[in-house]
Design a protein that fits this description.
The structure is a single chain. By secondary structure, the chain is of the alpha/beta class. It has a four-stranded parallel β-sheet, sandwiched between helices. It is built from three helices and four strands; from the N terminus they run E-H-E-H-E-H-E. It is about 40% helix and about 15% strand. It has one domain.
Length: about 80
C-alpha cells in the first residue's frame, strides 16, 4: 500500500517507514512540499493522482471529502485515520 502522510506527521516518520521498506511519502518531502498548508481538497486530489492512501488525524474534513466524492461517483483515495492520543 502506498501512503501519503498528512502534514501533522514529520518527514522523519516517512523516512523511517521508507527505511523499513514501505512506500511512503510526506507532504514535507521536497516533491510534495507544495501541499504544505494547501486545502484538504488538494491533498485529497494529489492522493488520488498518486494512487496513495492518506494517513491523517483530520477525520472530519477527509470524511466529508470522501462522502462528497462517493455521492458524485468520483474516485477516492484510501483513508487511514489516526489520533494523537
Amino acid at each position: 500500500m502506498k501512503l501519503l502522510l498528512d502534514e501533522m506527521y514529520s518527514a522523519t516518520v516517512a523516512e523511517q517507514l521508507r527505511g523499513r521498506g514501505h512506500d511512503v511519502v510526506s507532504i514535507h518531502d521536497a516533491e510534495f512540499r507544495s501541499l504544505e498548508g494547501a486545502p484538504d481538497e488538494e491533498v485529497f486530489a494529489a492522493a488520488i493522482a498518486e494512487e496513495r492512501a492518506i494517513v491523517t488525524e483530520n477525520v472530519p474534513d477527509f470524511r466529508r471529502l470522501e462522502a462528497e466524492a462517493l455521492a458524485s461517483d468520483e474516485p477516492t483515495p484510501g483513508l487511514i485515520f489516526t489520533t494523537n492520543r
